[in-house]
Amino acid sequence: MASRTSPWLGVPPNRLWAVRPGIYEDEKGRTWVTVVVRLSPSQRARGRGSPGSTHEPSITVHLWLMPVHPQKPMSPSQLTLSQLPLTWQLYSGRRYRAMDSRLWEVVDHGQIASTEQLILAQLPPRE
């Protein structure tokens, strides 16, 4: 994935919690806003004729660190309609583990102008 970001910024947030649809808070109380969610067919979906193939999309999400107007957080039950996890926990190196145990790879953690950006891509489930 080509990107026009600055070099790696170091360690990404340790944990991200959904507080509103598309808005996450990290362990330092900073807000990360979902600015792009890209769905694309997974490799497994391309082999439609093969036995055991699924039509599960691959998800890539771009999060930007930016202040938002304070709002009351929503309960987890109000946030369940999103395809994105309620929580991401930094798992191993450049990966996050979501609440549903799915892994997400850190594709990029850089800066665009003065905005810090985190790009995560959902990894296919292990078979």
Instruction: Output the helix-strand order.
Output: EEEHEEEEE
If helices are DSSP runs of H or I spanning 4 or more residues, what is the number of helices?
1
Instruction: Assess the beta-strand content as a share of residues.
Output: over 45%
Structural class: mainly beta
Number of strands: 8
Principal-axes geometry comes out as: globular
Read across the widest sheet, the strand sequence of neighbours is: 1-2-3-4-8-7-6-5
- In oligomeric terms, what are we looking at? single chain
Computed Rg: 15 Å
Distance between the termini: 25 Å
- Helix proportion range: under 10%
Mean pLDDT: 81
Residue stretches low in confidence (pLDDT < 50, at least 5 long) are 1-6, 44-49
Biggest β-sheet, characterized? Answer: 8 strands, antiparallel, barrel
Brief synopsis:
The chain is 3% helix and 46% strand. The protein has 127 residues and is mainly beta. The protein starts with 14 loop residues before the first strand and ends in a 5-residue tail after the last strand.
Walk me through this protein's architecture.
The protein is mostly beta strands. 3% of the residues lie in helices and 46% in strands. It contains 1 helix and 8 strands, in the order βββαβββββ. The protein has one helix at 43-46, and strands at 15-20, 23-26, 31-41, 57-65, 87-92, 95-98, 103-112, 115-122. The chain has an 8-stranded antiparallel barrel. β2 (23-26) and β3 (31-41) form a beta hairpin. The longest helix is centred in the middle third of the chain and has 4 residues, at 43-46. The protein starts with 14 loop residues before the first strand and ends in a 5-residue tail after the last strand.
